[in-house]
Amino acid sequence: MTRAFFIAFICLTSSLLANVTVYFNYAVFSSPTAKPYLETYLTISGNTVKYLPVSGGNQASINISWRILKGTDTSKEIVKTSNYNLLSPKVSDSLQMPSFIDNQRFSLSNGQYILEFTIIDNAIPDKKTTHTEKINVDFKRDKKIYSSDIQILESFTKTNSPSTLSKNGYDLIPYTINYYPKTQHSLKFYYETYNADSLLGKASKFIYLYYIENSETSARLNSFSGFQKQISQKVNPLLNQFDITQLPTGNYNLVIELKDSLNNLQSQKKWFFQRQSNAVDHTLTDKADNNLKTIEEFFNLFQSKDTLKQFVECLWPRSTTKEREWQQVQIVKKDPNLLRSYCVDYWKKEAGDSLDPLKIWITYYKSVLEANALMKCGKQKGYYTDRGRVYLQYGKPNQRSQVNSEPNTYPYEIWQYYRIYDKATGRFFTNKKFIFVNFAISDNCYQLIHSDVRGEIYDERWRFRLTTRSQQSSNIDDTQPANTYGGNVDDNFNNPR
Q1: Which pLDDT tens digit goes with each residue over 23-51?
Q2: Domain containing 290: what range?
Q3: Same structural domain, 244 and 256
Q4: Is 21 in contact with 15 (CB distance < 8 Å)?
Q5: Does pTM top 0.85 for this prediction?
Q6: 4 with 115, same domain?
Q7: Do the Cβ atoms of 327 and 316 come closer than 8 Å?
Q8: CA distance linking residue 335 with residue 340, whole number of Å
């Protein structure tokens, strides 16, 4: 399974403390003539490292060391090591510091391994980060069709001069995270299947199917699918891409399948990713565009109790206390007719005499999908989380500071609104802020700990809650922890960005 995540460590830049951000991903491939191999992909965020003057401009230098171990917890053997310096591109303009990548290959036999790497900014050698990852290599070509991991790409071009980025005549530039923001319009991927010639017969015909599915429902999105016919070989590569401009916000899997000439599924691989987009959910738009003019026609198309129940549930962040009481009654009863009738009446009331209830519902539901995809907590829907509730009640913040790694604090977010209207209370507010904290760290569950909006949680000692791991104060009048190494809490609060 291909993984994607980022790691942050602390460096000193012109007397200011900042986070150096590194994105890491990997994939395992086989070879018909040699051992399988592990490919590693690193992306260093250029604006988070220290550039020093060199001949021809300014350049950053990162030291990277790798260790691959095999064995049990009590007895490990080092099977691979590597240590080298990675240089950034030279820049003449200190304001332009592009990200730069590193790609390595390690030949490995079948087995389970522990991968360790350490990254140091050579400009500040006492600051470093170390990461450990379990790796499984399992290619037994004599038993069945096997496949590589799915390698996700930033871009690909035909090879002019072979390098570690080259495979089957193309240079493959890795994409090292599983998140696609609005600015990304294509999903590119590379994949290999092995042993098809032995299992299907030499020169046998087969087909690659590739498509995007909803990761929560496993529903296939027919608008995002394709196929490629191939002839079985020792290695069958697949290089392709999707245009995801119209893929709505949500959680998805890229799925690649191999089917033989009798349409039997021989192999399947999935890769999870998140998408944020301005595109509206195709399920809704397809129904809304089907010559529908009224809100009644739209909701009459849905018969599922669970779907209608979610349509009502997602209203609570923007509803008054009385409306929430009525919604709870409808949710408990789960009567499709009552749920449908409630949705129609709710949006007609919202629209009044001047707005189209169908249009404002579609617009709101797009925000619900964004909250569910980007702000959920475990199995809890996004609209029931603190961030999701604020997002749907007050709208998208004007500024959002996301701090994933800072010394002596939990991960936190600060949202700022220049001007907001709370429909639930009927009040306007200006220059208001919300502070969310992820106390568990390992998940994506953020808790609201402070806001200066009337009716929200207010806690003058919220800074201590951010720094609970390292600082305590028994004085209830004390609202400001002592300055901590590398801390930027006050700056982020006063100037969210």
Answers
A1: 888 999 998 778 899 999 998 888 778 88
A2: 282-374
A3: yes
A4: no
A5: no
A6: yes
A7: yes
A8: 8
